[in-house]
Amino acid sequence: MRVGVIGLGNMGEGVARNLLKSGREVVAWNRSPAAVDALVEAGALKAADPAEAFRAEVVFSMLSQDDVIEEVVVGSGALEKAAAGTTHVNLSTVSVAFADRMEALHQERGLSYVAAPVLGRPDVAAAGQLNVLCAGEPSGVAKATPLLELFAKQVWPLGDRASNANVVKLACNFALASMIETLGEAGALVDGYGVEPSRLYEIMTGTLFAAPAYKTYSGLIAERKFSPAGFKLPLGLKDVRLALAAGEARQTPLPIASVVRDAFIEAIAQGDQDKDWSALAAGAFRRAGRPLD
Amino acid sequence: MRVGVIGLGNMGEGVARNLLKSGREVVAWNRSPAAVDALVEAGALKAADPAEAFRAEVVFSMLSQDDVIEEVVVGSGALEKAAAGTTHVNLSTVSVAFADRMEALHQERGLSYVAAPVLGRPDVAAAGQLNVLCAGEPSGVAKATPLLELFAKQVWPLGDRASNANVVKLACNFALASMIETLGEAGALVDGYGVEPSRLYEIMTGTLFAAPAYKTYSGLIAERKFSPAGFKLPLGLKDVRLALAAGEARQTPLPIASVVRDAFIEAIAQGDQDKDWSALAAGAFRRAGRPLD
Amino acid sequence: MRVGVIGLGNMGEGVARNLLKSGREVVAWNRSPAAVDALVEAGALKAADPAEAFRAEVVFSMLSQDDVIEEVVVGSGALEKAAAGTTHVNLSTVSVAFADRMEALHQERGLSYVAAPVLGRPDVAAAGQLNVLCAGEPSGVAKATPLLELFAKQVWPLGDRASNANVVKLACNFALASMIETLGEAGALVDGYGVEPSRLYEIMTGTLFAAPAYKTYSGLIAERKFSPAGFKLPLGLKDVRLALAAGEARQTPLPIASVVRDAFIEAIAQGDQDKDWSALAAGAFRRAGRPLD
Amino acid sequence: MRVGVIGLGNMGEGVARNLLKSGREVVAWNRSPAAVDALVEAGALKAADPAEAFRAEVVFSMLSQDDVIEEVVVGSGALEKAAAGTTHVNLSTVSVAFADRMEALHQERGLSYVAAPVLGRPDVAAAGQLNVLCAGEPSGVAKATPLLELFAKQVWPLGDRASNANVVKLACNFALASMIETLGEAGALVDGYGVEPSRLYEIMTGTLFAAPAYKTYSGLIAERKFSPAGFKLPLGLKDVRLALAAGEARQTPLPIASVVRDAFIEAIAQGDQDKDWSALAAGAFRRAGRPLD
Question: How far apart, in whole angstroms, are the C-alpha atoms of residue D162 and residue D165?
């Protein structure tokens, strides 16, 4: 079975390698060819353009945002040239509106569109332990699922409407961003009294908040380990912006998300645009006149 | 060894019963005598007034808020009459400023003051599985710790300054309140697209947010089980207000806490003052024009 | 001199009639022809399509939002067919990004683009007393200014970059929305103590806040006169959204604008989408459990 | 007629001098005697203690905050020693709760309490052009009014309940703080596009926002003239905190006030505690990475 992969960033590469390991024939395309060449050494075929990657039974795309996908998948003509029945599995975190538009575009062309945004950072992708939120056209979902399982710890079905997987993904990333900002504020609060934030985090993650997300992020914050970035701060801003837009489209105010959005913008204005989004927490210390570094 | 207990609300009673189980001699006082009588049947002695409960080596107090403690412990004259060397362990969640004041008052009288606010709801207290944050005068802490362990899953030492335990407690409750509001907003977001909030919560607690707090509260929210209240909404407002005041005293802005405070006030204005503080999450659905009930 | 007018809503009609009064030859286009026919009776010529309205020395457009202008001016082919040297004066409140894009599109075609968003409600437009913020290609501005003065109380030049007029307009509308929400909150605060909000507003507008905006809007709020709408609530949301987007593009957090945005969304969710944006103030009373009506 | 004056800060001194000008016999007390001596040269009598200043038909107090008034007026015993029928006019901005408590204390002692908080900065007080919000026991109000008119541009009656004047004062100062923060954000928004904030302010105050408050404060912001302080930043924080507390006591959320409170705390944390509260606006530029100075 031939599988296309479009986008070999630090997430997409992990996905592609897991597909190769399973013995699938993988044809890959990436804007900067270097990433493709590395994968070719691991046994992949090199696609000359996105359309060639679309000449497959199932194509996975993992790109940074709506307009990039628009250009690579639609603008390039790849979608028009794709054979009827092809299944396109979009692993990217996109806006709900864009997911709906993509679903319609695929239907018109007799292609099936599956939204499969993932939870997990690059190391988790490489380890094939991602949590995958999956929704879309049923036959496409049926074809995609066994392949998703090649790099997923678990696949979470979310029904026939592709964008439902995206809105759930945005809700999860909003919850993460809210957690990061809250860890920052709570840490700055105790720090003002001479209590080490790390002690607070130790207590939180040792009791009520004993969750992977709290352990990972409170650790990064306590150690001020904001580089290298697993997920850059501007991407966090993007996801919170998309969550706010999705809320607005259904008249759902998200006041916490609004505060987090402002905090992201402030962090970028203060020069943290290349840091991991856990650096969002540093803002609470900075605003208190006690910057972390 | 004689142990005093002041305040037999749903938390204090659990503490007292665990002390009794251990064979300690417990002398208890409570404003409404009914609660004391029930405890007397279990072997406790009834104190005629707070001062009598203070005639003990160690006295635990578990009362609702600063001014109540002020009145019961100071206003009643109990503190003045207490024998030098008595250790007072305050399990209540109080303001940082009040904890500092109590510490000073005790020092003046040769008494030792220990702040030991607890994490856990009434059922946890009854089960003797509370997490206890403990700070204060070292000899008092040394005396208190073995007794705290009678009803604690773990005792977390936080140094010599009593109020440090209180600021950490406030930071934890702020983090809980932020989590509840965030669960509400994230749930309302997906609900706007026809996705069951319970499905989002299942994914969150099955992946990144697999923590006791998330499981407990997302369950209460998904089932709209806001009564009976384990911790009433106005108490949540109180703790967030105290966190904000503690932040202000150290020039630490807490924008998320400010949003949560407004949401608590709105919930009370909408008639939820007798519900559990998990009902805070209902506000997000109400503001979106899709009330939970 | 021939002047085109595109868009005859309650603002555009006022503009067109003032141009007619001045004796200019006005050729008008509007999606729904009824509005054009009314204007034809007043002496205007009817344009069959936007391109015909563009066959003029200066064309004014007053449309609701970016995508409508995109469709009517660009999508219709009007811009392509326009004669070199034509000046297009866009009176609409658009996004900064869209204004930059329009400016570039016009330059490519040898047309000059002038941004001239206006301050004032329909009655003010009819009276020819608008305040006009004006920026863009200098020769176009020179040509537009005497015409703008036909319906302006004052024209405020803002330089060569068209979008500068738009960002100032967005800043003004954000300030108005902040004022409306603040009037609502301040009114709800005193109302909680039995003081009539109208009494507070009387004191404010009689002292520190003796400004037209405060008098107009506090009057509408005190009299709960939210219909008919001079400026509909969703248009207010749009402008605050555009201000937030313009801020984000320059890393400028606008926390007050974020709160106002959430309040607009909530008002729409509560059913106020057809009311005047002064109804935003009603939210403060609703959240306090004391709805205005 | 003998008039007492307690508190000769930059506001109180202006009041006292206007009373002296009118030929009233003024007996003044101030913590630091220097201010009294200066006034004695202008013809005032020096009170040895607050009680002596209370030996008058009408006593004005102008002190910084609740606890200072508590100490000077109640703690000093002045109130107990005051002759029945004495009218105490409190010009200070105090909390609603404190005003209610003072009103009750005075009633118990057969004294009449009048709340008369003022709108205006020191120069306005010196010029005798303050706007005075006045409420309380009717006979006391009747006695106070002609005296208030000696330094007031206008006296605004607010009924029999003293605290009503205080809640209106807090609402006005909240509206001012909201305006300052909004001017900062709107200015930072246009500044991001190379438009001088002063140009925006010129347009605002030349059109919709042609009000004294907007002219005064936008001028101070445009000129970065934050010292000397007419009203210090921490006093602004105090008033917004009191407005929030007054709102909470009546279940009235004030989300804009919450944002402003956080901004005040941040400004103080950044070192602006001795600047005028107009410096609040500088925060918006600082958060955007473009500090004003």
Answer: 6
